[in-house]
Amino acid sequence: MDDLGSFTFDGQTIGFRSGESVLEAARRAGESIPSLCFDPRLKAYGSCRVCVVKINGRIGASCTTPCAPGLTVTVDDEIASLRRTLVELTGSLLPDDRLSGCPQCRLDGTCEFHRVARAVGAEPGRFAGAAGGVAHPDDNPFLGRDYSRCINCYRCVRICDEIEGDNAITARGRGFESTIAAWFDRGLEQSSCELCGQCIHTCPTGALTDRKMATKIAEVEKKTRLPILAEEIQRVESVCPYCGTGCGITLNAARGELLGITPVMDSPAADGALCVKGQYGTDFIASPDRLTKPLIRDRDPSTGLRAVGGGFREASWDEALTLVAGRLAGNLRDHGPDTFAAWASARTTSEANYLLMKFTRGVIGTNNIDNCQRT
Ligand code: FES
Fold it and tell me: If you average pLDDT over each of 22-31, 92-101, 343-352, which comes out highest?
């Protein structure tokens, strides 16, 4: 992106790039501006007004104001007070805007709304409001929907449209009655929703939650008879093993169990987007059906045939590798290298796939190797 010019922010000169808003350029330069309806992956919406600044002396939302050469942007006490009041008014939509009871605060230590509320010094419960929505009785196993915690920023609606292209949800009603609904107000599984979980990860409150992770947490807590605290959750970044895209994922674990997956928001492969498999397809990790030892299917001595669909016995690695090496050597000798083919997998490491390629080409002597990442 080319630098197009500069403006001043509280006296500091900030260069801006093509298409940047005042909020984006200022944040890139290290300035801190609070926001609620803004998500850098989405078009600016301008509904919460929490990002207000003074632009050439007039109050305006910085997320919807494009940069222009010579702008003078300032933040003074009047702006600080305005931001605080706006957050307090937004908080009046919540049943309890204190930390207790917010499921996202419990999981992450703080949700985005409460982080912003603390940053602007908002006073909880200053305005008496009315909770707008209710918990939706949606029985899908993946997404919890409690619109009593919705602040009408519409980030979920916009991400479903602009990033996913699903348009599974929309806004319904006005004012305190306003809420988010799927088609004909049914469950998400009866809509075009792909259960990718994008809406959960853009939601700034605990209105949308990862139900599968919540279920797992409750299971582990019941087993260990102790509540899981946000500080004890280990978060390990990795790469999704399902396909060749390589989306960044964070594995959230506690007490030796995987609780669930969250996206790495700045992952270059997917910009925080995961599909339903990457987001929720973790059951195989602790499956008792996973193979942990080599299995060999012997011939039945009476028939000389191998049993179909079973008849395996556990074997040592030495025995299994000796058997495979002998068979491969026999096939190579009798039928040549092109009777061999290898399929690499997106679910193994790059190093393992590299070794398989070297083995196929260098040891066996054939180019018969392919990978599911090409499909
Ligand atoms: Fe700018 Fe909401 S973040 S109006």
Answer: 22-31
> pTM of the prediction?
0.81
Regarding the beta carbon of 63 and ligand 1, being less than 6 Å apart is answered yes
pLDDT in tens, 321-343: 999 999 999 999 999 999 999 99
CA of 61 from ligand 1 middle (Å) equals: 6
For 41, the domain range is 5-91
Cα 55 to ligand 1 centre (Å): 15
pLDDT tens for 270-299 read 778 899 999 999 998 889 988 899 999 888
Q: Is 129 inside a domain boundary?
A: no
Number of domains in the chain: 3
Note whether 103 and 225 are same-domain residues.
Answer: yes
The answer on 102 and 198 residing in a single domain is yes
Q: 224 and 105 share a domain?
A: yes
Range in 54-58, 224-228, 303-307 with the lowest mean pLDDT: 303-307
Ligand 1 atom closest to residue 34's alpha carbon, by position in its atom list: 3
Residues 50, 109, single domain; the answer is no
- For ligand 1, the distance from its centroid to the CA atom of residue 185, given in whole angstroms, is 28
Contact predicate 214/143, CB 8 Å: no
CA–centroid distance, residue 50 to ligand 1 (Å) = 5
Which class for 242: exposed (0-12), middle (13-18), buried (19 or more C-beta within 10 A)?
middle
Per the structure block, which two tokens stand in for 330? 């026999």
Residue 46 beta carbon below 6 angstroms from any ligand 1 atom? yes
Residue 108 shares a structural domain with residue 82: no
Closest atom, ligand 1, to C-alpha of 44: 1
Residues 61 and 206 in one domain: no
Pick from 115, 283, 263, 255: which is nearest to 199 by CA? 263
**With a 6 A CB cut-off, is 22 part of the ligand 1 pocket?**
no
Nearest CA-CA partner of 150 in 203, 209, 213, 96? 203
58-61 sheet: strands from edge to edge: 12-17, 3-9, 72-74, 52-55, 58-61
Mutation test of ligand 1: which of 27, 37, 89 has the most ligand atoms closer than 8 Å to its C-beta? 37
- The tens digit of pLDDT for each residue in 207-218 reads 999 999 999 999
